[in-house]
Specification:
Layout (H helix, E strand, L loop, with lengths): L3 E6 H9 L3 E4 L9 H12 L7 E8 L7 E3 L10 E7 L1 H12 L12 E6 H5 L3 H4 E5 L3 H9 L3 E3 L7 H12 L2 H15 L2 E7 L5 H11 L8 H10 L5 H11 L8 H11 L6 H5 L6 H20 L10 H4 L6 H13 L5 H16 L7 H12 L1
Parallel strand pairs: 2-5, 3-9
Antiparallel strand pairs: 1-9, 2-4, 3-5, 6-7, 6-8
Helix pairs in contact: 7-8, 12-14, 12-16, 14-16, 16-18
Length: 379
């Protein structure tokens, strides 16, 4: 399916979020907006301002998703069989869901959940900024003051059926004018057009990840390992648990990232440990290859630290010349052992490669490509 652009009504989008049809990747960062940011978004919506374009991966079967997904925070239903995946827009969509549905969790920097209200009198006067009110559940005084005003209703009330909303507001205000204002605002909200750019789900995972990285470039960068945690979950491979277990069992895993294990695994499989290759790693025999990579990295780590027969690195994090050299070193040691070639002569060749690479600054740049080149030449 080719990429496409569409406008979808807010009411439809919120219903699909509630049904578990609009979801987010497992690797996406948490919902981090503060109450004022949510309030300002609601002001923009009721004033009919543009709130930016959302980016989704187009409809697909959930079991064909390239990575693990989860529902928007607070949604009670599980992930639907047919899904659309949000790549850009999580904060805005979660804010709208939060304001409407009142999930019982606090917003960033707060201890207690917040409630959001609409003052219909301010709406009538076109005072959009003052029309939206955010109140902490713990602020009993402000909550009582807000709720006492007849023209103030909860934001979520505006999504009720028209007849129900009309009766509720008319009874609360004893004024048909405000009941009519509520109906008009409700219709305006439900019909508010969200601009959505849909990316075809058949795109390669590395393309999707690149798009995600670009639109989230100002946040904390996601490592390949973070992305693989989500992708491999679909194959019942719990990568985060494998890494935690490795940290308990091996010394090397306490000082280097999980990416290094996957890179070593790729090199042992005869592939360059590039981002693209790692994101497309085959799940076949992954668990056994992971174990072999961990064993090889532990041997390489010990050789680096060994003062007598190794390279005498006193502190790996501080003094190792090029940290990434542990990847080809581990893969080469594994090759020697698997092929019964771990003899003194071959280890001398390995030592010569190590020192030539160190003094020649070979691993200063483009280490993934160089690792593969050196591995191929050595074996």
């Amino acid at each position: 399916m080719p990429d496409r652009y569409d406008t979808i009504e807010l009411d439809i989008v919120l219903k699909e979020i509630e049904e578990g049809r609009i979801v987010i990747p497992e690797f996406q960062r948490d919902f981090i907006w503060e109450p004022e940011q949510v309030r300002e978004l609601l002001v923009s919506i009721i004033a009919d301002y543009y709130i930016g374009t959302l980016i989704f991966i187009d409809k697909m079967m959930a079991n064909t998703s390239p990575f693990k997904v989860k529902t928007i925070k607070g949604v009670k239903r599980s992930v639907s069989d047919i899904i659309e995946i949000v790549l850009d827009g999580q904060q805005r969509l979660t804010s709208l869901y939060y304001a409407k549905n009142k999930p019982n969790y606090p917003l960033k920097g707060r201890k207690y959940p917040h409630l959001f209200f609409i003052d219909l009198e301010k709406v009538y006067n076109g005072e959009w900024e003052e029309a939206v009110i955010a109140v902490s559940k713990a602020d009993n005084k402000k909550l009582n003051d807000v709720c006492k005003k007849p023209t103030v209703i909860e934001f979520g009330e505006l999504f009720k059926p028209a007849s129900e909303l009309y009766k509720y507001v008319k009874k609360r205000t004893d004024d048909e004018k405000y009941a009519g204002i509520a109906l008009d605002l409700s219709d305006k909200l439900k019909r508010y057009k969200l601009n959505i750019y849909y990316i075809g789900h058949e795109k390669p995972i590395e393309t999707i990840v690149e798009i995600f990285d670009r639109i989230n470039s100002r946040g904390t960068p996601l490592s390949v390992f973070d992305l693989l945690v989500a992708r491999l979950f679909n194959y019942n491979i719990k990568l985060r648990k494998l890494l935690n277990d490795a940290k308990k069992q091996y010394d090397f895993a306490k000082v280097i990232s999980g990416d290094y294990i996957v890179k070593t695994l790729m090199l042992m499989r005869g592939k360059a440990p590039t981002r693209k290759n790692m994101l497309n790693v085959s799940p076949e025999n992954f668990m056994s290859d992971w174990k072999k990579a961990c064993e090889a990295l532990e041997l390489a780590y010990r050789r680096l630290l060994d003062k007598r027969t190794g390279y005498g690195v006193l502190d790996f994090k501080k003094w190792v010349p090029y940290e990434t050299m542990i990847i080809p070193l581990a893969a080469l040691i594994r090759y020697l052992k698997d092929n019964l070639l771990d003899n003194e002569e071959n280890y001398r060749k390995l030592d010569a490669w190590y020192w030539v690479s160190v003094f020649g600054n070979r691993y200063e740049h483009s280490t993934d490509t160089i690792s593969k080149q050196d591995y191929d030449k050595m074996v």
